[in-house]
């Protein structure tokens, strides 16, 4: 149902091709050959059937597993079963493995060993998937993620549907906290042409913890950081406005741009941050108000540019239009210098 809804909504055509299933797809016990097994009630026809159905729709399947014998829900993880699980995932046709670190020792060298075991097993399988490290940045995966064959890693705790935490922690991490944390470590991933992940897009979230302006700001920041665009909203019930944001062609193009240049940040006294990132062609500049009061700011015209595209208004603007950019609290405006 979710995959078909994504197709009908134009999400697949826009580039959203992965359906990623979190924990509870598996059981707590392995079969007599030691293979991890799918929940027979949730997936009566098995995971391979599901992967094939998605592939027939031009889509890909992602699963989660865990670097411990059992995950936080008491279901099977892959620790000490890396080789057989990697072979099973390949046989099923899984394209993406999110590897959690729940119930595992909080020691960097142990994490590197456990992720290394799975990374090597997946790379040696007949059908290597994208390997995604999800250990929340506590054990600094940006320092060793590339060495364990990861294509992406998390830099933050699980994101909450709010703009900012009272105090950043496992249980309190807002959109701005995640963005600020990810920006700090994204250069490590860019260095290896890999992907640094500040966690999920909350636009369309059923909890409505943020304003529409804040959700739009998140999408702009994630695009500029080249973060994975993975949303949590149910595609069967997306509003037209949410759908237009998720499929915004300029934001997707910036996010998926082949360049891996780092963002430079300018901090201003009034709470405005200016993020600048070179693209394959041109430069993207984001004016962001992280303060609690409205403000007016400006952006300098970039020498050598021949045109300025205002992403929000979807029009070309004159250089003098950059002299007064009105920004409500937590709002952002993105401009492309061509």
Structural key phrases:
338 residues; alpha/beta; TIM Barrel; Immunoglobulin-like; six-stranded parallel β-sheet; six-stranded antiparallel β-sheet; 9 helices; globular
List the helices and strands and how they pair.
Elements: H1 2-8, H2 11-14, E1 18-21, H3 46-56, E2 60-66, H4 82-92, E3 96-100, H5 108-124, E4 130-134, E5 152-154, H6 175-191, E6 195-197, H7 212-224, H8 240-246, H9 249-255, E7 264-267, E8 272-278, E9 283-289, E10 295-297, E11 308-310, E12 315-317, E13 325-327, E14 332-337
Helix pairs in contact: 4-5, 7-9
Description:
The protein is of the alpha/beta class. The protein has two domains: 254 residues, Aldolase class I (TIM Barrel), CATH 3.20.20.70; 74 residues, Immunoglobulin-like. It is 28% helix and 19% strand. The protein is built from nine helices and 14 strands. A six-stranded parallel sheet has the order 1-2-3-4-5-6. Strands 7-8-9-14-11-12 form a six-stranded antiparallel sheet, covered by helices on one side. A two-stranded antiparallel sheet has the order 10-13. Helix 7 packs parallel to helix 9. The longest helix is centred in the middle third of the chain and has 17 residues. The two termini are 41 Å apart.
A few lines on this structure:
By secondary structure, the protein is α/β, with parallel strands linked by helices.
């Amino acid at each position: 149902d979710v995959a078909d809804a994504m197709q009908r909504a134009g999400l697949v055509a826009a580039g959203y091709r992965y359906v990623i299933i979190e924990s509870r797809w598996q059981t707590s016990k392995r079969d007599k050959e030691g293979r991890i097994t799918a929940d027979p009630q949730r997936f009566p026809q098995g995971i391979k059937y599901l992967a094939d159905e998605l592939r027939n729709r031009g889509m890909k399947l992602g699963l989660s597993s865990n670097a411990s014998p059992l995950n936080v829900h008491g279901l099977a993880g892959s620790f000490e079963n890396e080789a057989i699980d990697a072979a099973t995932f390949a046989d099923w046709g899984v394209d993406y493995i999110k590897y959690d670190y729940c119930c595992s020792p909080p020691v960097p060298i142990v994490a590197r060993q456990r992720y290394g075991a799975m990374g090597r097993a997946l790379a040696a399988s007949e059908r290597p998937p994208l390997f995604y490290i999800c250990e929340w940045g506590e054990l600094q995966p940006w320092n060793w993620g590339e060495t364990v064959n990861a294509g992406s890693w998390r830099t933050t705790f699980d994101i909450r549907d709010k703009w900012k935490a009272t105090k950043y922690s496992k249980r309190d991490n807002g959109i701005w906290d995640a963005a600020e944390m990810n920006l700090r470590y994204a250069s490590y991933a860019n260095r290896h042409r890999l992907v640094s992940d500040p966690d999920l897009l909350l636009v369309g979230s059923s909890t409505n913890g943020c304003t529409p302006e804040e959700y739009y700001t998140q999408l702009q920041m994630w695009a500029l950081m080249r973060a994975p665009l993975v949303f949590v909203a149910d595609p069967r019930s997306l509003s037209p406005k949410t759908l237009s944001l998720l499929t915004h062609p300029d934001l997707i193009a910036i996010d998926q741009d082949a360049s891996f240049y780092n963002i430079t940040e300018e901090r201003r006294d009034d709470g405005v941050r200016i993020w600048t990132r070179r693209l394959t062609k041109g430069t993207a500049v984001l004016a962001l108000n992280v303060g609690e009061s409205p403000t007016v700011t400006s952006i300098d015209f970039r020498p050598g540019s021949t045109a300025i595209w205002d992403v929000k208004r979807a029009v070309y603007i004159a250089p003098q239009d950059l002299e007064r950019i009105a920004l409500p609290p937590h709002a952002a405006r993105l401009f492309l210098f061509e």
